[in-house]
Write a structure and sequence with these properties.
With about 260 residues, the chain is an alpha/beta fold. It is about 40% helix and about 25% strand. Helix 8 packs across helix 10. The mean pLDDT is about 95.
């Protein structure tokens, strides 16, 4: 799956707000080492450095395009190309941040123990994931994929994200790993100027990627035309033309004892 830093950062203010809220829940304390898993273009890494200015901060992402943008933004930070699912090593971290990234990583039952093992005593795993697979914008992606001439090629696209699990599952699993857990869900209502087209542009930088990547240019255009028509029905514009995009997100902070 390919990622475009330019497309992703078109809505940087809206995408950055959740990680600000997440980092605000971490206590101000001495942090020697922190890492941003799935750092993208570095917007979350920048906030992580500001939250813990004395820490050695690094970032990891699977997209070379995202890392190029992150290195340009924060040239003094060590950014590494890599897969979160395969991330391993002897280093221990006081903070492991994963902002809007773990939803793309399979098998969270295996992933969470691996992440907790990388925490130093008292270290914190801070995670935010979209909780929107049941929202109209995502249901429409699956419907357009299933109903078009591309159905066979896009059969795997709906499985690109990890299966959706509730807050209770994460709390129980992380408690079983010897951590104290705080979990919550927040629904943001993002006002997007430009009607249904703006909603499409938002998801072109994230959830639509698995559906668009396998298609040629003509097919992408037709897919997006059908998708935008559905979005216009599902998200009617306000009087000023703005569309409110409801976006639920799941947060949790797990502190290792």
């Amino acid at each position: 799956m390919t990622w475009s830093a330019t497309q992703y950062t078109r809505f940087e203010d809206e995408r950055t707000r959740p990680v600000r809220d997440l980092l605000a829940q971490l206590p101000q304390r001495p942090v020697a080492a922190a890492i941003d898993l799935g750092c993208g273009p570095g917007n979350s890494t920048e906030l992580l450095r500001a939250r813990f200015p004395g820490a050695a901060v690094s970032g990891l992402d699977s997209s070379a395009d995202m890392l190029a943008a992150a290195r340009q933004r924060l040239p003094e930070v060590a950014f590494v190309l890599g897969d979160i699912a395969a991330w391993d090593g002897p280093e221990r971290y006081d903070v492991i941040l994963a902002n809007a990234s773990l939803q793309w990583v399979p098998d969270h039952a295996a992933l969470l123990p691996a992440l907790v093992r990388r925490l130093a005593p008292g270290g914190q795993l801070a995670v935010q994931m979209p909780d929107n697979l049941d929202e109209p914008a995502h249901r429409l992606m699956r419907e357009v994929a299933a109903e078009g001439p591309w159905a066979a090629r896009l059969a795997a696209a709906t499985a690109a994200r990890a299966p959706r699990r509730g807050a209770g599952w994460y709390v129980a699993t992380l408690r079983g790993l010897g951590t104290r857990v705080d979990a919550w869900i927040t629904t943001y209502h993002h006002p997007l100027a430009g009607g249904a087209a703006a909603v499409v542009e938002w998801f072109k930088g994230s959830g639509l990627r698995p559906f668009l990547d396998p298609l040629d240019a003509a097919e992408r255009s037709e897919f997006l035309r059908r998708y935008e028509a559905g979005v216009a029905r599902a998200y009617p514009a306000l009087e000023d033309g703005t569309v409110l995009l409801p976006f639920p997100r799941l947060f949790f902070v797990a502190t290792r004892d």
